[in-house]
Design brief:
Keywords (chain B): Signal, Transport
CATH topology of chain A: MetI-like fold
CATH architecture of the largest domain in chain B: 3-Layer(aba) Sandwich
Largest sheet of chain B: 9 strands, mixed
Largest interface: A-B, 58 and 54 residues
GO molecular function, one term (chain B): maltose binding
Number of strands of chain B: 15
CATH architecture of chain A: Orthogonal Bundle
Oligomer: heterodimer
Number of domains of chain B: 2
Family (chain B): Belongs to the bacterial solute-binding protein 1 family.
Number of helices of chain B: 19
InterPro entries (chain B): SBP
Structural class of chain B: alpha/beta
Largest sheet of chain A: 2 strands, antiparallel
Helix content of chain A: over 70%
Number of helices of chain A: 14
Shape of chain B: globular
GO biological process, one term (chain B): maltose transport
Number of domains of chain A: 1
Chain lengths: 327, 436
């Protein structure tokens, strides 16, 4: 408290009881002002957040308890309230659960692959010549800077069955006939492409973040471990990874969030009309709401998606908070 | 989550307008196109699809000029893309600042007519309305009232390579389906290139597949009383579908997961002998813009320039595609809007469309069209024997739900038999069309 006191209170004669009592309200008034200022400073952000996030979210939740169809949209009639009907419809539909399973499966596979690849690239970057490291950084920045839509369009043309350069190159291999090969007939092949695209686009963020995290690993520890005869694998598992753990948790969490909401990549690769076996929660919600004018059903699916993801994330978020407390 | 919320925000933003316009649709009167209106100082907003901009912009301008001369009102035409126009239309019609005239594909119209999106028009006000093509006007009719006006049509024809036909010793276009198969055999056996397919047919081209279903007396869905029933698993339909599957498997090298959107461009690479497309696609296959991103760049010939001809597809009834025009229910200028449609669909405008290789909106004009423009003669002939998807409120949802496309791909890849796939599709169609 003393360090904060303004110089004007200091010259006050000591021992003067009245002065001391008179001085009491002053800091308390200042405290009141202190409490208001942060809110005031945060106000513009809060207004934007409420307008862009909270209100649409509120409308979406309201919508999911109604039955809004094209007629209500076009004529402005108030949609009827249907309670939990939309949720019941989704949760008892095997198609919906198929979509949930597909989305979850894709998320697990793609996140594991991208975190491993990102960590690998980050470790590699610590070992190579600084010039090579710079070249790697620049290359990854380009990948990072590429908008999802552009990257997805590029992949679509690379893998096009009639004009794609991928088929052309594979076809050049002796004894392989890949002319006019369609990559999306077999869902496993199609999903492999989607995964490659997502992992490829996800690596720069992971690798750059993790390589920044790696600079925090004290060299002395690693040197000491080497002197004590630890193999590089042991050093990685017992020194590097524990230090990286908080960062790994955060980037993994973010990857889960991003990949769970997969939309652009499948949408573009399937030319705006993904077949049932290419539907994920995001595209399914969108096609139900906008394609089939089931606005309420689409909203219910979106709400369920958010809840599902929060359910999975609770574990990670708690861990993130724990890390914060230790720090 | 970010993207999830983005979707949610878009969803909510679309609906924001709804509350603000609760009283927008109260005026339910018929929009007359013949009353004298003074439109001086007014401007009507017209949404046409991009085809009008690329192929017959002069017809649009001419009709607007005559409309302005008669009413004094100005016209503001905005061109829309097929890929996203319905989403955009939904969002716009939910608000108050709506276009007065909207063009939609004929299979898309029913949904909006059933849900009160368009105002009633007086059929007799429009020229040739007595002989409108039923494939177009079917979507406009509800309970004996008319809610839109047929605009133009396209019928699908067989486009073939005359040079390859000659090399294979085929004198003329096939007249029967058996001749078609025999010609395809000759083309296929006369070409040693493993990439060559005698008949280009992408696997999700459902308009084509359903034409084959119709050719054997099959159907997609039928209405009994209030209930729709899918007909694809009926023997006649399965027989037609099998006919299509056999032809595709034997003669087509096309991607089974693609639709027909880029078929003309693929055909112009020269690796197919025939394809089934709209009459104007012949032109697309023969000439392309030098810079595909610049619609004003000069046209350059493709590999197949001057080597193509068209004929009606023998024994296969043609799907009648096309567009209609409607006056939006929320429009503040309904009578002016109806008048503009009157000028844009009269015989003068129709002959302009015929010059641009589109089919006119009425059977009475088809013969004249065939005589005036030999290019569209096969299509005009095909249009006389044409079919149209079920006129059900929810039909557009079946299309959007990829039901038929998925069925076709599943059969072609061998994932399902024709019997299983048609049974599955019927279930989907029954659920979608009968959903309340």
């Amino acid at each position: 408290m003393q360090a904060v006191d303004s110089p004007t209170t200091r010259p006050a004669p000591p021992g003067g009881g009245t002065e001391q009592r008179a001085a009491v309200p002053r800091p308390s008034r200042r405290r009141r002002a202190d409490a208001r200022v942060p809110w005031l400073l945060a106000l513009p952000t809060l207004v934007v957040l409420v307008a862009l996030l909270a209100y649409p979210l509120y409308r979406m939740i309201v919508l999911s308890f109604q039955n809004m169809r094209l007629r209500e949209l076009l004529t402005g009639l108030t949609p009827s309230w249907v309670g939990f009907d939309q949720y019941e419809k989704a949760l008892t539909d095997s198609t919906f659960w198929g979509v949930v399973g597909r989305t979850a499966g894709f998320t697990v596979v793609s996140v594991i692959l991208s975190v491993l690849a990102g960590l690998g690239v980050a470790l590699l970057m610590r070992r190579v010549h600084p010039k090579v490291r710079l070249a790697m950084m620049i290359a990854m920045m380009f990948v990072w800077a590429l908008p999802q839509l552009v990257a997805a369009q590029t992949f679509r043309w690379l893998t096009d069955s009639d004009f794609g350069v991928l088929n052309y190159l594979i076809d050049k291999l002796p004894g392989v006939d890949y002319a006019n090969h369609s990559w999306f007939v077999n869902p496993w092949q199609g999903w492999s492409l989607v995964t490659v695209l997502v992992v490829w686009a996800g690596i720069p963020f992971l690798a750059i973040s993790l390589s920044a995290g790696l600079t925090q690993v004290p060299k002395e520890l690693l040197e000491a471990a080497t002197v004590d005869g630890a193999t590089s694998r042991q050093a990685l598992r017992n020194i590097t990874l524990p230090i990286l753990k908080p960062l790994l948790t955060i980037v993994t969490t973010l990857s889960v969030i991003w990949n769970f909401g997969l939309f652009t990549q499948t949408w573009v690769l399937r030319d705006g009309h993904p077949e049932p076996y290419y539907q994920t929660l995001a595209t399914y919600s969108y096609t139900q709401a906008f394609g089939q004018s089931k606005y309420s059903y689409g909203s219910a699916i979106a709400v369920i998606t958010v809840l599902l993801m929060l359910g999975v994330m609770v574990f990670y978020i708690r861990q993130m908070f724990k890390i914060g407390e230790v720090d | 989550m970010k993207r999830k919320i983005a979707v949610a925000a878009a969803l909510a933003a679309t609906l924001l307008g709804t509350a603000a316009c609760g009283s927008g649709g109260d005026d339910n009167g018929t929009a007359s196109a013949n009353t004298k209106v003074d439109g001086t100082g007014k401007t009507i907003k017209v949404w046409l699809m991009v085809d009008a901009q690329t192929s017959w912009k002069n017809v649009v301008e001419d009709a607007s000029k005559r409309f302005t001369a008669a009413t004094g009102a100005q016209v503001n035409v905005e061109y829309q893309q097929w890929a996203n126009h319905l989403t955009k239309l939904d969002a716009t019609l939910a608000g108050t600042d709506v276009p007065d005239v909207v063009e939609l594909g004929n299979t898309e119209f029913s949904k909006y007519v059933f849900n009160g999106g368009f105002a009633e028009v007086n059929k007799a006000d429009f020229e040739n309305s007595g002989t409108w093509l039923s494939g177009l006007s079917g979507a406009c009719e509800l309970d004996g009232k008319t809610y839109c006006v047929p605009y133009y049509a396209g019928a699908r024809v067989l486009v073939y390579r005359t040079d390859l036909f000659k090399a294979a010793g085929i004198a003329d276009a096939p007249k029967t389906y058996d001749e078609f198969l025999a010609d395809a055999d000759k083309l296929q056996s006369g070409n040693k290139d493993s990439k060559f397919g005698a008949f280009y047919m992408p696997g999700q081209y459902w308009y084509a597949a359903m034409s084959f279903v119709k050719s054997t007396g099959g159907d997609i869905a039928k209405k009994d009383g209030d209930k729709w029933t899918g007909q694809l698993s009926q023997p006649a339909s399965q027989q037609g579908l099998q006919r299509w599957v056999d032809a595709v498997k034997k003669y087509s090298k096309a991607d089974v997961t693609k639709n027909e959107n880029d078929q003309a461009n693929i055909f112009s690479q020269g690796q197919a002998g025939m394809f089934y497309g709209n009459a104007w696609e012949q032109g697309v296959a023969e000439e392309v813009h030098k810079d595909p991103n610049d619609p004003t760049s000069p046209m350059v010939p493709t590999k197949v320039k001057g080597k193509l001809a068209a004929a009606p597809m023998p024994e296969i009834p043609s799907f009648l595609g096309g567009s209609n025009l409607g006056v939006t229910q929320k429009s503040g200028n309904k009578e002016l809007a109806a008048q503009w449609i009157k000028y844009f669909t009269d015989s003068t405008s129709m002959s302009g469309l015929v010059k641009a290789n589109a089919l006119p909106n009425a059977t009475a004009l088809l013969d004249k069209a065939a005589a005036d423009n030999p290019t569209i003669a096969p299509a005009a002939l095909a249009a006389k024997q044409s079919w149209f998807p079920p006129n059900a409120e929810k039909w557009a949802d079946v299309e959007k739900g990829n039901v038929l496309q998925t069925m076709l791909t599943d059969v072609l890849t061998g994932k399902k038999t024709v019997a299983d796939a048609t049974k599955w599709a019927d279930d989907q169609i029954n659920t979608t069309l009968n959903e309340s």
